[in-house]
From TrEMBL:
It comes from the Eukaryota. Belongs to the peptidase M14 family. GO terms for biological process: proteolysis. Its cofactor is Zn(2+). One of its GO terms (cellular component) is cytosol. One of its GO terms (molecular function) is zinc ion binding. This is Cytosolic carboxypeptidase 2. CDD domains: M14_AGBL2-3_like. It is found in: Cytoplasm, Cytoskeleton, Cilium basal body; Cytoplasm, Cytoskeleton, Microtubule organizing center, Centrosome, Centriole; Cytoplasm, Cytosol. The keyword Acyltransferase does not apply. Keywords: Carboxypeptidase, Cell projection, Cytoplasm, Cytoskeleton, Hydrolase, Metal-binding, Metalloprotease, Protease, Zinc. Coiled coil: none annotated.
Length: 793
């Protein structure tokens, strides 16, 4: 007999029926391929599993976080020999299970809740997650990288810090230097990534730690303590720098890496420099930016981080830079215009390790650490349930949070409306994650307002829609090489799993209850402040209602949120965005929240940069505005609606100055008076990659064939057949009646016949038909044996 089977048959402990069912269910559908003893959430076997499976240990990529997790994509060796058929497996397991059930006197399901007296309370426990999440020890799922990517083993971590004083915009002097780009020919390459996947290739597979083998040292080797060459590095989570060229002693030209499997989208940068000198003025110039307009032209500064300052003074990210200039690169290759960003800086310490970034980084590991703290909190975990929405293209978990207080009755649960929030569909827009963090901090708190919101709504939250892009340091795309926010209508589930499953989740949610609001958090690189893009409603019953929430939000956050920057026009090129797709699915209040990479031009924060605390506070204001928006006292709502009508009337009179619109102004289409969202950071859809076109065409052909299939006509009842026969007979008689007058009596068409004439006519016609029948030119009427009614041929 097989040793493994002997061990299982000798067990005296009855397996939990729920775990037994889930084991077979997940194994059948291919979601779980591990051994039976390593079932997720199995308290009985978890200690043995962790100690006996060293392959699941996380190594240097997470530093001290050497916790365990089951990789759902890692194939496990089968327990049974290959020569034994699956039918025999199931039969032997069934015998084993049945014998244990019959011999156990203490058979009891652990899924029914019991009261303090031991009586069964007919309520099921909360369903368990399909994949292992976080236990008390705190396992984290190690990020999975494309196999082309080299990843250093160091753990990059930054402290959170809020500057004590406002960080003002840079004020251009007009004398900023525009350095000439010399490239490799006039300088020395001191850092360069070996292989970067472009649009000529496509994603195939991933693994924890990225590329196999020894990690190369890409930075130059210092010749001694006097060598002051900077050492660059970006092969860490969310990092982006492809090449660094030393032009002069303290001058460097930097080239950003495009989004993987594309040749576009260079905006996000995040890299490390070492071997700094304190009293020197360094100049950095990024030479391959793609956007003609940027907030760097109106005072935005890059972000800077010093590890020595963080360690000794607890100072984190801060805005630094002087002589900042954004300009066109005149030495471009002619294919597309390139732009440069240049700035100077003095490092605060010698031999320091420093970082530069486009905005405050927020990585996939940062998210997992936050979710770990929530699941380990005994209070928050009662009303915040963490589930897997799906696995990304690289196999990273896309998390879904369901936040609501338990309802006291089924009627109360059914009456709750839903609110759906998401962030980081564009991985380089990390400001969306900071707003999401502020929202989660508040909604999970013990504040009375937070408790009221949890009593009123069910929140569905996807905090990071594009974890693959966040991990590899993309600005806009997923590993499919496309902007996910143009593919919410996709039918390619396997190629765009994150947005496909998000749309499907919301579709199922709409079948259960009303979704009051959908909002997707983004970042904006060309406009200051925070604002919303919505969708104009054509239903006159809800005219302007979609603008009430943004107006309320502008009143609750007047120094951050700009209502005048909001736009509600639906353009054809935006039909694939989450905002428009959810609106067409029936969500009236469907928004994209745009948060600037720069700062505010409003109120007390005018001309200052936003900090992470500013963005987190906006997450709180979203909650506060929800309470105002749904207040049973509709006074605020109606006041905002009246204010919106007055504002709109002013806009109409400005646009149509010479036209008398009194009494008809409300009939004008809102699209006629509203500009497009051309100020948006949105990119046009590039269509599908070449390797996906055939798959999409095949699916579309199958879809068309399904629609073309004709439905069989349903069988008619006897009564329906008799009625149809009588109608046909009357129609034939009426046709004969119209022909008869002119032929038989010479009367004009349309002249009516008296009853005697009609009888004569009918007898004549019947006589003619009988003669034709005798001559063999006419067949007798058939008889319907089902109804007993004769039918004419």
């Amino acid at each position: 007999m097989f040793p493994a089977l002997e061990t299982e048959l000798k067990q005296k402990i009855l397996p939990d029926p729920y775990e037994d069912f889930m084991y077979h269910h997940l194994q059948y559908y291919g979601y779980f391929k591990a051994q039976r003893g390593s079932l997720p959430n199995s308290a009985t076997h978890q200690h043995v599993w962790k100690n006996n499976n060293p392959r699941y240990l996380l190594s240097g990529s997470l530093g001290k976080r050497d916790d365990l997790i089951l990789d759902p994509l890692q194939k496990e060796k089968r327990l049974w020999p290959s020569c034994l058929s699956s039918a025999v497996h199931r039969q032997m397991e069934a015998v084993n299970r049945d014998s244990l059930m019959l011999s156990s006197p203490l058979l009891k399901s652990r899924q029914l809740l019991h009261d303090e007296f031991g009586k069964v309370n007919l309520r099921l426990r909360e369903p368990r997650g399909l994949f292992a999440f976080f236990s008390g020890r705190g396992p984290l799922q190690a990020p999975r990288w494309p196999v082309e990517c080299e990843v250093i083993k160091e753990n990059i971590h930054h402290i959170e810090w809020v500057p004590p004083q406002p960080e003002h915009f840079y004020q251009p002097t007009g004398s900023e230097k525009i350095p000439e780009i010399v490239g490799e020919e006039g300088g020395t390459v001191v850092y360069q990534l070996d292989s970067v996947p472009t649009e000529d290739s496509y994603f195939t597979r991933s693994r924890v730690g990225g590329k196999r083998g020894v990690i190369k040292e890409l930075a130059v080797t210092l010749q001694g303590p006097e060598d002051n060459t900077l050492l660059f590095e970006s092969r860490f989570e969310s990092g982006n720098l492809q090449k660094a060229v030393r032009v002069d002693t303290y001058t460097y030209e930097l080239t950003l890496r495009t989004d993987l499997y594309t040749r576009k989208h260079t905006q996000w940068f995040y890299f490390r420099v070492q071997n700094t000198r304190k009293d020197a003025t360094y100049r950095f110039t990024i030479v391959n930016l793609l956007k003609p307009k940027s907030l760097y032209t109106v005072g935005m500064k890059p972000l800077f981080y010093s590890q020595l300052d963080a360690r000794t003074h607890s100072i984190g990210w801060r805005r630094e830079g002087d002589e900042i200039k954004y300009y066109r690169n005149n030495s471009d290759d002619g294919q597309q215009p390139l732009y440069c960003l240049t700035w100077t800086i003095q490092f605060p310490h010698d031999q320091d390790t420093c970082f530069f970034a486009h905005f405050y980084p927020y990585t996939y590991t940062d998210l997992q650490c936050y979710l770990l703290s929530v699941t380990n909190n005994p209070v928050q975990s009662q009303f915040c349930k963490l589930r897997t929405l799906c696995q990304s293209l690289a196999g990273n978990t896309v998390y879904l949070l369901t936040i609501t207080n338990p309802a006291r009755t089924p009627q109360e649960a059914a009456a709750k409306k839903a609110v759906v929030l998401s962030a980081r569909v564009h991985p380089g827009e990390s400001n969306g994650s900071w707003i999401m963090k502020g929202f989660l901090d508040f909604i999970l708190s013990n504040s009375p307002d937070a408790q009221l919101l949890r009593d009123t709504f069910i929140f569905k939250v996807v905090p990071m829609l594009n974890p693959d892009g966040v991990i590899v340091g993309n600005y806009r795309c997923s590993l499919a090489g496309r902007d996910l926010n143009r593919h919410y209508k996709t039918i390619l589930k396997e190629s765009f799993p994150c947005v496909w499953h998000t749309r499907n989740m919301i579709k199922r949610l709409l079948e259960e209850r009303e979704v009051l609001l959908y909002c997707d958090f983004h970042g904006h690189s060309r406009k200051n402040n925070i604002f919303l893009y919505g969708c104009n409603n054509n239903d006159r019953k809800f005219w302007l209602h979609e603008r009430v929430f943004p107006l309320m939000l502008s009143k609750n956050a007047p120094d951050k949120f700009s209502f005048h920057s909001c736009n509600f026009k639906v353009q054809k090129c935006k039909e694939g965005t989450g905002r428009v797709v959810m609106w067409r699915m029936g969500i009236l209040n469907s928004y994209t929240m745009e948060s600037t990479f720069g700062g505010s031009t409003l109120g007390n924060k005018r001309d200052t940069h936003f900090t992470t605390e500013d963005l987190k506070s906006l997450g709180y204001h979203v909650c506060d505005t929800l309470l105002d928006f749904c207040d049973p006292d509709r006074t605020k709502f109606m006041q905002c609606l009246a204010e919106l009508k007055a504002l709109l009337q002013q806009e109409i009179h400005k646009k149509f100055k010479d036209t008398d619109l009194e009494g008809s102004w409300s009939d004008i289409s809102l699209s006629d008076i509203e500009s497009s969202t051309s100020g948006s950071d949105s990119s046009l859809s590039d269509g599908l990659p070449v390797h996906l076109l055939n798959i999409a065409n095949e699916l579309n052909q199958k879809k068309k064939k399904m629609y073309k299939k004709k439905k069989r006509k349903p069988l008619q009842s006897r009564k329906q057949r008799n009625i149809q026969y009588q109608k046909n007979k009357l129609m034939q008689e009426s046709e004969l009646t119209e022909e008869a007058p002119s032929q038989a009596n010479g009367r004009d068409r349309g002249t009516s016949l008296d009853p005697s004439e009609m009888t004569t006519l009918m007898l004549t016609k019947n006589k003619e038909r009988m003669q034709m029948y005798v001559q063999g030119n006419l067949h007798p009427p058939a008889t319907n044996h089902l109804s007993g009614v004769g039918h004419s041929p």
